[in-house]
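Researcher: Next sequence.
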Amino acid sequence: MNHYRNIGLLSGAQAIAGSAQGMVMAVGALAGASLAIDPAFATIPTTVMIIGVALMAGPAAIILHRLGRTRGFVLGASIAATGGLLAAFGLYLHSFLIFSGAMLLIGAAGAFGQQYRFAVADSVPPELKARAVSWVMFGGVLAGFLGPRLASMTSEAVADAPYTGSFLALAAVCAVSIALLVFTRLPKGEPKRPASETGRPLKVLIREPDVFVPVLTGMASYALMTFVMVAAPLAMVFICGHTTGEAANAIQWHIVAMFAPSFITGSIINRIGTHLTAGIGLLLILASAATALSGTTTLHFDIGLVLLGVGWNFGFIGSTVMLTKSYRPEEAAKVQALNEQLVFGVMALASIGAGVLLNTFGWEAINMMVMPIVAAALVLLAWTDIRRRRAERVAQAFPE
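Model: Next structure:
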Protein backbone atom coordinates (compact mmCIF):
# COMPACT_ATOMS: atom_id res chain seq x y z
CA MET A 1 0.00 0.00 0.00
CA ASN A 2 2.92 2.33 0.81
CA HIS A 3 4.08 1.92 -2.80
CA TYR A 4 0.98 3.58 -4.23
CA ARG A 5 0.92 6.15 -1.41
CA ASN A 6 4.47 7.20 -2.32
CA ILE A 7 3.66 7.34 -6.03
CA GLY A 8 0.65 9.59 -5.43
CA LEU A 9 2.38 11.92 -2.99
CA LEU A 10 5.53 12.22 -5.08
CA SER A 11 3.44 12.90 -8.19
CA GLY A 12 1.82 15.78 -6.34
CA ALA A 13 5.18 17.02 -5.08
CA GLN A 14 6.60 16.79 -8.61
CA ALA A 15 3.68 18.86 -9.91
CA ILE A 16 4.33 21.52 -7.28
CA ALA A 17 8.12 21.55 -7.81
CA GLY A 18 7.54 21.86 -11.56
CA SER A 19 5.04 24.66 -10.96
CA ALA A 20 7.65 26.60 -8.99
CA GLN A 21 10.13 26.26 -11.85
CA GLY A 22 7.38 27.17 -14.33
CA MET A 23 6.56 30.31 -12.36
CA VAL A 24 10.19 31.42 -12.59
CA MET A 25 10.36 30.66 -16.31
CA ALA A 26 7.13 32.64 -16.86
CA VAL A 27 8.09 35.84 -15.00
CA GLY A 28 11.78 35.52 -14.09
CA ALA A 29 13.11 37.38 -17.12
CA LEU A 30 10.35 39.99 -16.86
CA ALA A 31 11.14 40.56 -13.19
CA GLY A 32 14.84 40.73 -14.04
CA ALA A 33 14.11 43.34 -16.73
CA SER A 34 12.24 45.47 -14.17
CA LEU A 35 15.35 45.52 -11.96
CA ALA A 36 18.27 45.48 -14.40
CA ILE A 37 20.15 48.66 -15.32
CA ASP A 38 20.48 47.35 -18.88
CA PRO A 39 17.78 45.19 -20.56
CA ALA A 40 20.59 42.92 -21.80
CA PHE A 41 20.95 41.70 -18.19
CA ALA A 42 17.27 40.68 -17.88
CA THR A 43 17.92 36.94 -18.34
CA ILE A 44 20.80 36.78 -15.83
CA PRO A 45 18.57 35.76 -12.86
CA THR A 46 16.98 32.90 -14.85
CA THR A 47 20.42 31.80 -16.02
CA VAL A 48 21.63 31.89 -12.40
CA MET A 49 18.72 29.62 -11.46
CA ILE A 50 19.76 27.09 -14.12
CA ILE A 51 23.35 27.24 -12.86
CA GLY A 52 22.01 26.58 -9.35
CA VAL A 53 20.35 23.37 -10.59
CA ALA A 54 23.56 22.25 -12.28
CA LEU A 55 25.81 23.01 -9.29
CA MET A 56 23.52 21.27 -6.78
CA ALA A 57 22.49 18.27 -8.91
CA GLY A 58 25.22 15.91 -7.66
CA PRO A 59 25.32 17.08 -4.01
CA ALA A 60 21.50 16.86 -3.77
CA ALA A 61 21.58 13.16 -4.68
CA ILE A 62 24.20 12.48 -1.97
CA ILE A 63 22.31 14.54 0.64
CA LEU A 64 19.08 12.67 -0.05
CA HIS A 65 20.76 9.30 0.50
CA ARG A 66 22.56 10.44 3.67
CA LEU A 67 19.75 12.47 5.24
CA GLY A 68 16.87 10.27 4.08
CA ARG A 69 14.67 11.11 1.14
CA THR A 70 11.65 12.45 3.01
CA ARG A 71 13.77 14.81 5.11
CA GLY A 72 15.94 15.65 2.10
CA PHE A 73 12.93 16.58 -0.03
CA VAL A 74 11.49 18.69 2.80
CA LEU A 75 14.87 20.45 2.98
CA GLY A 76 14.77 21.09 -0.79
CA ALA A 77 11.22 22.49 -0.64
CA SER A 78 12.23 24.68 2.34
CA ILE A 79 15.15 26.09 0.34
CA ALA A 80 12.76 26.86 -2.53
CA ALA A 81 10.33 28.60 -0.16
CA THR A 82 13.20 30.64 1.28
CA GLY A 83 14.30 31.53 -2.24
CA GLY A 84 10.77 32.66 -3.11
CA LEU A 85 10.58 34.91 -0.04
CA LEU A 86 14.06 36.32 -0.72
CA ALA A 87 13.14 36.99 -4.37
CA ALA A 88 10.00 38.83 -3.26
CA PHE A 89 12.11 40.85 -0.81
CA GLY A 90 14.60 41.70 -3.57
CA LEU A 91 11.80 42.85 -5.87
CA TYR A 92 10.22 44.91 -3.11
CA LEU A 93 13.58 46.63 -2.45
CA HIS A 94 14.28 46.83 -6.18
CA SER A 95 17.57 44.95 -5.68
CA PHE A 96 18.87 43.06 -8.72
CA LEU A 97 21.61 41.43 -6.61
CA ILE A 98 19.24 40.05 -3.95
CA PHE A 99 16.85 38.82 -6.63
CA SER A 100 19.65 37.01 -8.49
CA GLY A 101 20.86 35.41 -5.24
CA ALA A 102 17.33 34.17 -4.62
CA MET A 103 17.28 32.59 -8.07
CA LEU A 104 20.40 30.62 -7.16
CA LEU A 105 18.56 29.21 -4.12
CA ILE A 106 15.48 28.32 -6.19
CA GLY A 107 17.72 26.56 -8.71
CA ALA A 108 19.51 24.61 -5.97
CA ALA A 109 16.13 23.53 -4.61
CA GLY A 110 15.13 22.40 -8.10
CA ALA A 111 17.99 19.89 -8.03
CA PHE A 112 16.27 18.14 -5.10
CA GLY A 113 13.00 18.03 -7.06
CA GLN A 114 14.72 16.25 -9.95
CA GLN A 115 15.36 13.32 -7.61
CA TYR A 116 11.68 12.40 -7.20
CA ARG A 117 11.94 9.95 -10.09
CA PHE A 118 14.82 8.03 -8.48
CA ALA A 119 13.15 8.11 -5.07
CA VAL A 120 10.00 6.44 -6.34
CA ALA A 121 11.94 3.94 -8.50
CA ASP A 122 14.01 2.83 -5.51
CA SER A 123 10.96 2.49 -3.24
CA VAL A 124 8.86 0.09 -5.35
CA PRO A 125 9.31 -3.51 -6.58
CA PRO A 126 11.10 -3.96 -9.95
CA GLU A 127 7.86 -4.66 -11.83
CA LEU A 128 6.47 -1.25 -10.75
CA LYS A 129 9.57 0.86 -11.53
CA ALA A 130 8.62 1.98 -15.04
CA ARG A 131 5.03 2.87 -14.13
CA ALA A 132 6.09 4.58 -10.90
CA VAL A 133 8.65 6.81 -12.64
CA SER A 134 6.22 7.71 -15.42
CA TRP A 135 3.40 8.54 -12.98
CA VAL A 136 5.65 10.83 -10.95
CA MET A 137 6.74 12.57 -14.15
CA PHE A 138 3.05 12.91 -15.10
CA GLY A 139 2.79 15.48 -12.31
CA GLY A 140 4.54 17.85 -14.70
CA VAL A 141 1.33 18.18 -16.75
CA LEU A 142 -0.29 20.08 -13.90
CA ALA A 143 2.90 22.10 -13.51
CA GLY A 144 2.75 23.18 -17.15
CA PHE A 145 -0.65 24.79 -16.61
CA LEU A 146 -0.50 25.81 -12.94
CA GLY A 147 2.92 27.50 -12.74
CA PRO A 148 2.64 30.13 -15.50
CA ARG A 149 -1.03 30.81 -14.72
CA LEU A 150 -0.41 31.32 -11.00
CA ALA A 151 2.58 33.56 -11.71
CA SER A 152 0.47 35.71 -14.03
CA MET A 153 -2.50 35.93 -11.63
CA THR A 154 -0.36 37.11 -8.70
CA SER A 155 2.12 39.33 -10.57
CA GLU A 156 0.36 42.57 -9.54
CA ALA A 157 -0.72 41.45 -6.07
CA VAL A 158 1.74 43.79 -4.30
CA ALA A 159 1.23 47.46 -5.16
CA ASP A 160 4.22 49.29 -6.68
CA ALA A 161 6.29 46.08 -6.74
CA PRO A 162 5.51 44.08 -9.90
CA TYR A 163 6.05 40.31 -9.72
CA THR A 164 6.61 40.36 -5.94
CA GLY A 165 3.30 38.55 -5.52
CA SER A 166 4.41 35.83 -7.95
CA PHE A 167 7.35 34.89 -5.74
CA LEU A 168 5.27 35.07 -2.56
CA ALA A 169 2.94 32.60 -4.30
CA LEU A 170 5.95 30.43 -5.13
CA ALA A 171 6.85 30.28 -1.43
CA ALA A 172 3.25 29.34 -0.57
CA VAL A 173 3.25 26.58 -3.20
CA CYS A 174 6.45 25.16 -1.70
CA ALA A 175 4.80 25.10 1.74
CA VAL A 176 2.04 22.91 0.26
CA SER A 177 4.75 20.63 -1.14
CA ILE A 178 6.26 20.24 2.35
CA ALA A 179 2.83 19.25 3.69
CA LEU A 180 2.62 16.46 1.08
CA LEU A 181 6.18 15.24 1.55
CA VAL A 182 5.94 14.66 5.31
CA PHE A 183 3.41 11.89 4.61
CA THR A 184 5.70 9.90 2.28
CA ARG A 185 7.20 6.61 3.47
CA LEU A 186 10.61 6.60 1.81
CA PRO A 187 13.85 4.87 2.85
CA LYS A 188 15.60 6.52 5.77
CA GLY A 189 19.09 7.95 5.49
CA GLU A 190 22.02 5.65 4.94
CA PRO A 191 25.06 5.93 7.23
CA LYS A 192 28.36 6.58 5.54
CA ARG A 193 29.62 3.13 4.55
CA PRO A 194 33.20 1.89 4.77
CA ALA A 195 34.89 1.77 1.37
CA SER A 196 34.62 -2.04 1.40
CA GLU A 197 30.80 -1.80 1.56
CA THR A 198 30.07 0.82 -1.08
CA GLY A 199 30.09 -1.52 -4.08
CA ARG A 200 32.15 -1.02 -7.20
CA PRO A 201 34.24 2.15 -7.48
CA LEU A 202 32.78 4.90 -9.65
CA LYS A 203 35.64 4.64 -12.15
CA VAL A 204 34.66 0.99 -12.68
CA LEU A 205 30.92 1.68 -12.85
CA ILE A 206 31.24 4.44 -15.44
CA ARG A 207 33.00 2.02 -17.78
CA GLU A 208 30.02 -0.35 -17.70
CA PRO A 209 27.82 0.09 -20.81
CA ASP A 210 24.74 -0.53 -18.63
CA VAL A 211 25.70 2.64 -16.72
CA PHE A 212 27.32 5.01 -19.21
CA VAL A 213 24.84 4.46 -22.06
CA PRO A 214 21.71 5.53 -20.09
CA VAL A 215 23.70 8.45 -18.64
CA LEU A 216 24.71 9.59 -22.13
CA THR A 217 21.19 9.04 -23.49
CA GLY A 218 19.72 11.08 -20.64
CA MET A 219 22.26 13.84 -21.30
CA ALA A 220 21.42 13.89 -25.02
CA SER A 221 17.64 13.93 -24.41
CA TYR A 222 17.74 16.74 -21.84
CA ALA A 223 20.39 18.87 -23.55
CA LEU A 224 18.72 18.74 -26.97
CA MET A 225 15.29 19.48 -25.53
CA THR A 226 16.63 22.47 -23.58
CA PHE A 227 18.74 23.70 -26.50
CA VAL A 228 15.79 23.83 -28.90
CA MET A 229 13.18 24.92 -26.34
CA VAL A 230 15.20 27.96 -25.21
CA ALA A 231 15.97 29.00 -28.80
CA ALA A 232 12.45 28.45 -30.19
CA PRO A 233 10.56 31.45 -28.69
CA LEU A 234 13.47 33.76 -29.56
CA ALA A 235 13.44 32.45 -33.13
CA MET A 236 9.64 32.82 -33.37
CA VAL A 237 9.56 36.45 -32.21
CA PHE A 238 12.85 37.97 -33.33
CA ILE A 239 13.65 35.97 -36.49
CA CYS A 240 10.32 34.80 -37.89
CA GLY A 241 8.14 37.73 -36.79
CA HIS A 242 5.54 35.80 -34.79
CA THR A 243 3.88 37.36 -31.74
CA THR A 244 4.89 36.84 -28.13
CA GLY A 245 1.49 35.23 -27.50
CA GLU A 246 2.08 32.69 -30.28
CA ALA A 247 5.48 31.87 -28.82
CA ALA A 248 3.99 31.45 -25.32
CA ASN A 249 1.28 29.17 -26.69
CA ALA A 250 3.87 26.99 -28.45
CA ILE A 251 5.93 26.66 -25.26
CA GLN A 252 2.84 25.83 -23.19
CA TRP A 253 1.94 22.91 -25.47
CA HIS A 254 5.57 21.84 -25.50
CA ILE A 255 5.54 21.60 -21.68
CA VAL A 256 2.29 19.63 -21.76
CA ALA A 257 3.80 17.30 -24.39
CA MET A 258 6.82 16.77 -22.14
CA PHE A 259 4.74 15.32 -19.33
CA ALA A 260 1.36 14.16 -20.67
CA PRO A 261 2.76 10.95 -22.27
CA SER A 262 3.92 9.86 -18.79
CA PHE A 263 0.41 8.45 -18.36
CA ILE A 264 1.40 5.63 -20.76
CA THR A 265 5.21 5.71 -20.89
CA GLY A 266 5.57 3.15 -18.09
CA SER A 267 3.28 0.70 -19.88
CA ILE A 268 5.19 1.23 -23.12
CA ILE A 269 8.49 0.48 -21.36
CA ASN A 270 7.04 -2.70 -19.84
CA ARG A 271 5.85 -3.81 -23.29
CA ILE A 272 8.80 -2.93 -25.56
CA GLY A 273 11.69 -2.30 -23.15
CA THR A 274 13.75 0.70 -22.08
CA HIS A 275 16.16 0.69 -25.04
CA LEU A 276 13.47 0.83 -27.71
CA THR A 277 11.44 3.41 -25.77
CA ALA A 278 14.46 5.70 -25.41
CA GLY A 279 15.30 5.12 -29.09
CA ILE A 280 11.79 6.17 -30.16
CA GLY A 281 12.20 9.29 -28.02
CA LEU A 282 15.42 10.21 -29.82
CA LEU A 283 13.77 9.61 -33.20
CA LEU A 284 10.95 11.97 -32.20
CA ILE A 285 13.54 14.63 -31.31
CA LEU A 286 15.02 14.07 -34.77
CA ALA A 287 11.53 14.44 -36.28
CA SER A 288 11.16 17.71 -34.36
CA ALA A 289 14.34 19.06 -35.96
CA ALA A 290 13.17 17.93 -39.41
CA THR A 291 9.82 19.72 -38.88
CA ALA A 292 11.60 22.92 -37.88
CA LEU A 293 13.81 22.73 -40.98
CA SER A 294 10.78 22.30 -43.24
CA GLY A 295 9.20 25.69 -42.45
CA THR A 296 8.82 28.56 -39.99
CA THR A 297 5.04 29.04 -39.69
CA THR A 298 3.48 28.87 -36.23
CA LEU A 299 2.20 25.39 -37.13
CA HIS A 300 5.76 24.21 -37.84
CA PHE A 301 6.88 25.53 -34.45
CA ASP A 302 3.85 24.05 -32.65
CA ILE A 303 4.27 20.59 -34.17
CA GLY A 304 8.04 20.64 -33.78
CA LEU A 305 7.87 21.59 -30.09
CA VAL A 306 5.21 18.97 -29.34
CA LEU A 307 7.39 16.30 -30.98
CA LEU A 308 10.34 17.60 -28.99
CA GLY A 309 8.38 17.32 -25.73
CA VAL A 310 7.16 13.76 -26.37
CA GLY A 311 10.65 12.77 -27.54
CA TRP A 312 12.18 14.12 -24.32
CA ASN A 313 9.61 12.21 -22.27
CA PHE A 314 10.37 8.85 -23.89
CA GLY A 315 14.12 9.45 -24.00
CA PHE A 316 14.49 10.75 -20.45
CA ILE A 317 12.13 8.30 -18.70
CA GLY A 318 13.51 5.38 -20.73
CA SER A 319 17.06 6.37 -19.74
CA THR A 320 16.10 6.83 -16.08
CA VAL A 321 14.49 3.38 -15.80
CA MET A 322 17.43 1.84 -17.70
CA LEU A 323 19.86 3.41 -15.24
CA THR A 324 17.94 2.25 -12.13
CA LYS A 325 18.51 -1.35 -13.27
CA SER A 326 22.28 -0.97 -13.67
CA TYR A 327 23.54 -0.61 -10.10
CA ARG A 328 23.34 -2.35 -6.74
CA PRO A 329 21.54 -0.64 -3.82
CA GLU A 330 24.82 0.34 -2.15
CA GLU A 331 25.94 1.99 -5.41
CA ALA A 332 22.78 4.06 -5.93
CA ALA A 333 23.98 7.33 -4.34
CA LYS A 334 27.20 7.63 -6.35
CA VAL A 335 25.65 6.61 -9.68
CA GLN A 336 22.64 8.90 -9.28
CA ALA A 337 24.86 11.81 -8.19
CA LEU A 338 27.11 11.38 -11.23
CA ASN A 339 24.11 11.10 -13.55
CA GLU A 340 22.45 14.24 -12.18
CA GLN A 341 25.66 16.26 -12.29
CA LEU A 342 26.28 15.34 -15.93
CA VAL A 343 22.67 15.61 -17.14
CA PHE A 344 21.94 18.98 -15.54
CA GLY A 345 25.42 20.31 -16.17
CA VAL A 346 25.04 19.78 -19.90
CA MET A 347 21.46 21.12 -19.68
CA ALA A 348 22.80 24.36 -18.19
CA LEU A 349 25.40 24.66 -20.95
CA ALA A 350 22.70 24.05 -23.58
CA SER A 351 20.46 26.72 -22.05
CA ILE A 352 23.22 29.30 -21.85
CA GLY A 353 24.55 28.51 -25.33
CA ALA A 354 21.21 28.40 -27.17
CA GLY A 355 20.75 32.17 -27.42
CA VAL A 356 24.36 32.81 -28.44
CA LEU A 357 24.33 30.11 -31.13
CA LEU A 358 20.92 31.24 -32.41
CA ASN A 359 22.17 34.81 -32.87
CA THR A 360 25.43 33.64 -34.43
CA PHE A 361 24.29 30.83 -36.74
CA GLY A 362 20.48 31.05 -36.95
CA TRP A 363 17.47 28.80 -36.34
CA GLU A 364 18.27 26.29 -39.09
CA ALA A 365 21.75 25.69 -37.68
CA ILE A 366 20.29 25.03 -34.21
CA ASN A 367 18.21 22.19 -35.62
CA MET A 368 21.03 20.85 -37.79
CA MET A 369 23.14 20.48 -34.64
CA VAL A 370 20.53 18.10 -33.21
CA MET A 371 21.05 15.43 -35.88
CA PRO A 372 24.60 14.12 -35.23
CA ILE A 373 23.97 13.96 -31.46
CA VAL A 374 20.79 11.94 -31.95
CA ALA A 375 22.57 9.63 -34.41
CA ALA A 376 25.41 8.96 -31.95
CA ALA A 377 22.97 8.23 -29.09
CA LEU A 378 20.95 5.84 -31.27
CA VAL A 379 24.11 3.92 -32.21
CA LEU A 380 24.99 3.53 -28.52
CA LEU A 381 21.49 2.33 -27.66
CA ALA A 382 21.48 -0.19 -30.51
CA TRP A 383 24.92 -1.49 -29.51
CA THR A 384 23.94 -2.06 -25.86
CA ASP A 385 20.62 -3.66 -26.84
CA ILE A 386 22.36 -6.11 -29.20
CA ARG A 387 24.94 -6.82 -26.50
CA ARG A 388 22.20 -7.46 -23.91
CA ARG A 389 20.23 -9.80 -26.19
CA ARG A 390 23.38 -11.76 -27.05
CA ALA A 391 24.18 -12.19 -23.35
CA GLU A 392 20.63 -13.45 -22.71
CA ARG A 393 20.92 -16.03 -25.52
CA VAL A 394 24.25 -17.26 -24.15
CA ALA A 395 22.77 -17.55 -20.64
CA GLN A 396 19.85 -19.58 -21.99
CA ALA A 397 22.11 -21.85 -24.04
CA PHE A 398 24.56 -22.47 -21.19
CA PRO A 399 22.67 -22.22 -17.91
CA GLU A 400 24.79 -22.46 -14.78
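Model: Residues 1-192 form a domain with the Growth Hormone; Chain: A; fold (CATH 1.20.1250.20). The chain has a mean pLDDT of 87.
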